Amino acid sequence: MIRLVLRYAALALAVVALNFGLPRLLPGDPLDAFAPDGLGPAATLTASARARLQATYHLDQPLAAQFAAYAGDLVRGDLGWSISRNAPVGQLIAERLPWSLALVLTALVLAAALGGGLGLTAAWHAGRADRWLTTVSTLVAALPEFLVAMALLLVLAVGLHWFPLQGGRSAFAGGGLLDVIWHLSLPVLTLVLATSAGFTLLARGAVLGVKNAPYLVAARGKGLSETTLAVRHAVPNAMLPVLTLFAVRLGQVLGGALVVERVFAVPGLGLLAFEAIQARDYPVLQAIFLLASLSTLGAMFGLELVYRHLSPHGH
Amino acid sequence: MRFAWFALVAVVVFSTGCALPAPNGQQPRPAGDARVVRIAWPDSGVLTPFRVSTLGPGGPVLLSLVYDTLVWKDAQRLIPWLATSWDVSPDGRDFIFTLTNRATWHDGQPLTADDVAFSFDYYAQHPYRWQSTDIVESASQLGPDRVRIRLKQPFAPFLDDVAGSVPIIPRHIWQNVSDPEHYTAANATVGSGPYQVAEYRSAEAAYRLVANPTYFAGQVMVDEVQQLNIPAETRIQALQQHQVELVQSADASVADLTRSDPRLQVLETPPLSIVRLAVNTSKPPLDRREVRQALTLALDRTRIAEVITRAPPIVGSAGIVAPETPWFDPDLPAYGFDPQRAKQLLGGQTFSLELLADPTYREPELLQPMLQAVGVTLNVKRVDAATRTQLLREGSFQLAEVQHLGIGGDPDFLRRWQAGTEANDFAQGWTFVNAEFSQLAEAQAATLDLAARKQLVDRMQAILADELPTIPLYYRRFYWVYDQQRYTPMNTWGGLMNALPFVQNKLTFLRR
């Protein structure tokens, strides 16, 4: 256990260093302001103003000094100040984190539940059900997420007006939780369609691997129902791969879902990261990458602990 | 097991829903009770002069609803605003403004000449990034309602560019703020404008501005102005579904909407947006004027404009200044589409050129065959804006496609581009060095006589047309689609502030 903790601690330190260095490998200057879609000019920047801003953000310092300042801020819990948005990075992330969680976490849970259930059904019943579910899952998995999002938007929002066009909630209209659920329905549905197929195929494979195991044959011989056999005996023994995929995806939650956030204008971390890349906003990029990396590390750490508990050979 | 999954899902949805920022506690107003105008536009940042977004022109436009300037513009001319009148000294260096005594800050304090003087002093220490005030030598209060602004030298664009776009800020709030870029107090957005900032949801880029009931310049007719971040792909649908009242489009085909929905109207702006090729004139073969002229003649710019804009084409003027604007010189040589003449100028040479272009630009696909026909192979390198800007600044380019605004207002932008004293994403890449042009550029900025200045600017345009340090491809209009039952926008003379083709002039919200 101690070795496990130390290994992950070392990984976390490496992540901090990488997150500092990676954004700086991008060409471009974070002090340049870029207007999108030919809507420049962006704001002007005289030489003296540029020098002042460089000093403010330590960009005139050697990399080692910049990293020292960054590490010192991290220890104090200060994620820095966004160059492009002129706001505290911690505030930007805190405002967007609930949207990413609501969107990605909800979709992940639903996708795992749906995909796991369909995979179990396909594997258990075999025959036509298996062929249909496998074919449909493969087709859905092959569809680009952007295409699915646009199709749902065009049909259900633009065409039928059943769902809103964009946003996480009605602007300034006093809506509550139901309003949020209504707004996030299409984005969540997009993500569920995009990710459930992976769970389906993985669950199907895992269940097929245990379906004809001796203990199941014995249990069937004892007269247990197929449902009991499937849910109480097959699933627990086949769930490790599904759990692994769930944990991997869980660790990616804080990376947001850029495509879906962009199409439906959900103000999540994915969109923030994309815009920060465009603007070369080092403090925002560092913070988001750090959060996403550490959450992935945390999920992997948790998964290793679960594996040790569930299976003597899990580690 | 099934119940456990259901419970987990319910917990996730409920808990994350509860974790979301609580919605505005106010109930939505009944449709007939309050007048609200909603505008679709991306994030504009925190609405102070020091934290407003520097990414795109939406920031200063929205800021103009919260703050006022000394002068303003209507559809025909410059008009008094905070300054009811002004006098200019014979040498053009002193501007003495007489201010209205009816203006107040949103917190009720009176706006005085002291605030105006303070503003310019403060901007000298903490620049307003959307308009340089470096030309100002000093600002001093002459009386409760009179202020003198002294310039370092005569500066013809002062009224239009500086006095007409620099927001006046309250001394009693900013005098003790040493770090305005990081000032986050609640009173940071106190201005004097027709609207006060009631709410800004930064994650959603949603603004709610409420009317200033004591606005000095007239009755504010629209109770609330909201700016909402709606993706470009769904803005028109949002307008059709009554979710917004004003959206912008670069596509002329939006005019078709008005035929199907009588509620909607389209307001075209003058062609204040330009698409051009930045040319690195410091490196062969583009250091030769004949080559640059040949490239221009090889391009069927009419067709390029037609294909891309799907609107009546407005071919780029070699003098850069946009047509339909006061400073445009219509007598410049027009480079038509003449591949034969282009080949003659190239003298049978063939060579390759590299063009930097954004991944979304479609023009390169049209440019390539046109240039290939005259023996020039165009290699297109797709780079994003940040990379392009760095390459332009370093001079590591041959051609670069740039698209931007700001070419229709005061022509002093021509001087600023070539002076190299400013850096922004379209002044980069200006490698042209011409002694006469530089002299004319400095002279026009200091020439207060309109006719004399026009002659100087015309000569500058003629030099640009002959030397072609940049190849203007075409101009674009903005198309603003609006719900005419709820709001009527307007075009501003020379564009809003520094030639911005935005139609939500604060005058459209007032009854005067």
Which radius of gyration of chain B do the C-alpha atoms yield? 25 Å
Q: Mind describing the biggest β-sheet of chain A?
A: none
Overall pLDDT score of chain B: 90
Q: How many beta strands in the DSSP annotation of chain B?
A: 21
Q: What's the SSE pattern of chain A?
A: HEHHHHHHHHHHH
**Largest sheet descriptor of chain B:** 5 strands, mixed
- Which pair has the most extensive contact? A-B, 72 and 90 residues
Strand content of chain B: 15-25%
Could you say which structural class the secondary elements and strand pairing of chain A correspond to?
A: mainly alpha
- What is the alpha-carbon Rg of chain A in Å? 24 Å
- Count up the helices of chain A: 12
What distance lies between the first and last C-alpha atoms of chain A, to the nearest angstrom?
11 Å
- Mean pLDDT level of chain A: 85
Task: State the helicity of chain A in percent bands.
Answer: over 70%
How many angstroms separate the termini of chain B? 69 Å
What's the shape of chain B? globular
Uncertain runs of chain B are 1-33
What's the count of strands of chain A?
1
What does this structure look like?
The complex is a heterodimer of chains A (315) and B (512). Chain A is mainly alpha-helical. Chain A is built from 12 helices and 1 strand; from the N terminus they run H-E-H-H-H-H-H-H-H-H-H-H-H. Chain A has helices spanning 2-25, 47-56, 63-75, 89-125, 127-142, 145-159, 177-210, 214-221, 226-251, 258-264, 269-279, 282-310, and one strand at 45-46. By secondary structure, chain B is α+β, with helices and mostly antiparallel strands. Chain B contains 16 helices and 21 strands. In chain B, the strands form 6 sheets. Chain B has a 5-stranded mixed β-sheet. In chain B, helix 8 (289-298) packs antiparallel against helix 10, helix 13 (412-419) packs across helix 14 (435-446) and helix 14 (435-446) packs antiparallel against helix 15. The termini of chain B are far apart. Mean pLDDT of chain B is 90; it is low at 1-33. At the A-B interface, strand 1, helix 2, helix 4, helix 6 and helix 7 of A face helix 1, helix 12, strand 17 and strand 18 of B. Strand 1 (45-46) of chain A pairs antiparallel with strand 18 (422-423) of chain B, so a sheet runs across the interface.
